[in-house]
């Protein structure tokens, strides 16, 4: 019996050593520059904007991944704000076993402390019109979608996404609406039920939501939502299966 226990312990120890060596090897030979270049290329194509990433490192918390530091997505020249998005980091979680075969498969995206600025000018021009929706929606759907819906489509195109401690501002110069969301957190999982139909579920919270409409300032609110919804792009319809406030 003692011998069996020793064998089991040796097997467990050997397994742990193999895992440690594999992780250490990935840390040493992880294709950081390749992932960084791929991230810049994909994000630039999706947003049709200049994207900069200051540095990249390997992260292990919550799974192995690439930690892209100090990300910035620029605004069009017409806007006074220089950036549409600034974030402390984008933690790109990758699937472990494909990495051993030198394959990069993204499992989850975690946006850390983003500052997002949405702006609509008096002439109707917005800074959140992107090219990503062109690859997601059929032409008939794209013609019907307003820019706000296109932005949502771009966001849910990621299967697993999280936002931690975000800050979002929305300013509409024509309607004099200003919205400020502080400490925004999101956990979202998206599945494709069928073509152009997405099932999204997760949690969404804002510690302080501030709204100003022209000269009226509303009291700050705290928002917490659990949701399960289906978005049909073909019919431009959202069906809430379950929601908790």
Question: If you had to describe this structure to a student in words, what would you say it looks like?
Answer:
It is a single chain. Helix content is 27%, strand content 47%. By secondary structure, the chain is of the alpha+beta class. It has 2 domains: 1-30; 31-244, no CATH class. Strands 1, 2, 3, 4, 5, 6, 7, 8, 9 and 10 form a 10-stranded mixed beta sheet that branches. A hairpin with a 4-residue loop joins strand 9 and strand 10 (237-244). The longest helix is centred in the first third of the chain and has 28 residues, at 2-29. The chain starts with a helix and ends with a strand. Residues 5-9, 11-29, 133-142 and 148-157 have low confidence and may be disordered.
Number of strands: 10
Q: What is the oligomeric state here?
A: single chain
Strand content: over 45%
Level of helix content? 25-40%
Poorly predicted regions are 5-9, 11-29, 133-142, 148-157
Distance between the termini: 56 Å
- Evaluate the radius of gyration: 22 Å
Structural class: alpha+beta
Largest sheet at a glance? 10 strands, mixed
**How many domains comprise the coordinates?**
2
Mean pLDDT, to the nearest integer, reads 74
The tally of helices reads 5
Order of helices and strands: HHEEEHEHHEEEEEE
Overall spatial form: globular
